[in-house]
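Lab meeting, item 3. Inverse folding demo.
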């Protein structure tokens, strides 16, 4: 076991209640010899007491900034704007390698401080498969919102809750009208989650993946009432839905839930909208007659913080127990260095995992 001092930080984003390590897995890490500090965080879905009971050292929110240099800071979403120079190794979703807004600034902060980003999105096994991801619950919620909206039962603003509540809401009421649904990307993590939600809702969706879209039958796709898009596109493919399809007076498709939310990307398979929807206003009407409604929420798993955290933590913990220079963490570090080089940044002294 490597000598790892892990520091679970409070999330700067106020609506983020998830955590990458839940108390039970904190205990596993501690038992394996990892030194674990957990920041107090009022919004985290698991109480700080539970981490303390597991044996973790508790520290104030945001105190990672003065943690010893060798500490590995763990979180999920963006860092606060200060400090400008980042000297630690940070594990989180940096969203910094695809020219996203703020990407250059973040990498520059790491380069200036001599720290490193170990990006969770790039934590992959030897075959390039993601080791820890939130996809399943994203798909479950993307489909759940589509079903509830299509049945006229979705009331915003959305708020985080427990799975039992979502399941209860999803169950069909007696005499409720049937509808047809299609999940594209059905074999992936979010596709499986979407199918599970439809299952609870008593709807048997069509399931398409690569084989079914290779020679895209758009007419067949548009012949469903509800579409849930769960693809992870890696190369450009013909769009699934186009503007002219929305304008077709004979269109059957009414509700689109885009779990992928690749809005603005050249790989976007749904180039019919230009901004995501929000928890406050989850549905946007894109056409009046016949109606066409969009749901495109880019932080779906945050609506189920407990279950999403538990699954993610179960997948991440074994990889944390194997923290070291080889394998997934080494690949993360290589990716960070490559991104810095692409931007002409010198990545300080972060040549270690
Ligand atoms: N909205 C959110 O809150 C949220 C949360 C997590 C993930 N996501 C996004 O959801 C998407 C899917 O993530 P995942 O974890 O399920 O990925 P995944 O790799 O597990 O599954 C993707 C599936 O899409 C299929 N696919 C790829 N191209 C296709 C095509 N042209 N036609 C049909 N199928 C195709 C793949 O074969 C695979 O089965 C990603 O873009 C991810 O970023 C969104």
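The presenter then showed the designed sequence:
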């Amino acid at each position: 076991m490597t000598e790892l001092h892990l520091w679970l930080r409070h999330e700067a984003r106020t609506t983020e209640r998830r955590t990458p390590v839940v108390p039970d897995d904190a205990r596993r890490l501690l038992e394996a010899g990892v030194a674990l500090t957990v920041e107090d965080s009022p919004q985290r879905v698991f109480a700080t007491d539970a981490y303390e009971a597991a044996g973790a050292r508790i520290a104030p929110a945001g105190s990672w900034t003065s943690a010893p240099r060798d500490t590995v800071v763990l979180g999920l979403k963006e860092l606060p704007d200060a400090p400008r120079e980042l000297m630690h190794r940070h594990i989180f979703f940096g969203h910094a390698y695809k020219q996203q807004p703020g990407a250059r600034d973040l990498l520059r902060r790491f380069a200036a401080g001599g720290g490193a980003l170990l990006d969770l999105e790039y934590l992959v096994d030897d075959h390039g498969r993601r080791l820890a991801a939130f996809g399943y619950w994203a798909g479950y919620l993307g489909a759940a919102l589509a079903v509830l909206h299509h049945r006229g039962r979705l009331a915003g603003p959305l708020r985080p809750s427990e799975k039992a509540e979502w399941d209860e809401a999803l169950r069909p009421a007696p005499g409720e009208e049937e509808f047809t649904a299609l999940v594209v990307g059905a074999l992936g993590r979010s596709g499986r989650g979407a199918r599970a939600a439809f299952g609870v809702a008593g709807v048997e969706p069509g399931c398409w993946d690569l084989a079914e879209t290779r020679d895209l039958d758009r007419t067949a796709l548009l012949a469903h009432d509800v579409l849930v898009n769960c693809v992870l596109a890696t190369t450009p493919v013909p769009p699934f839905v186009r503007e002219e399809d929305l304008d077709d007076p004979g269109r059957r498709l009414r509700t689109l839930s885009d779990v992928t939310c690749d809005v603005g990307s050249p790989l976007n398979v749904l180039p019919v909208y230009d901004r995501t929807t929000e928890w406050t206003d989850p549905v946007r009407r894109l056409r009046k007659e016949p109606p066409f409604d969009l749901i495109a929420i880019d932080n779906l798993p945050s609506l189920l913080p407990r279950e999403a955290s538990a699954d993610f933590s179960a997948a991440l913990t074994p990889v944390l127990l194997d923290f070291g220079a080889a394998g997934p963490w080494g690949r993360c570090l290589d990716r960070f260095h490559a991104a810095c080089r692409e931007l002409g940044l010198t990545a300080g002294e972060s040549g270690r995992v």
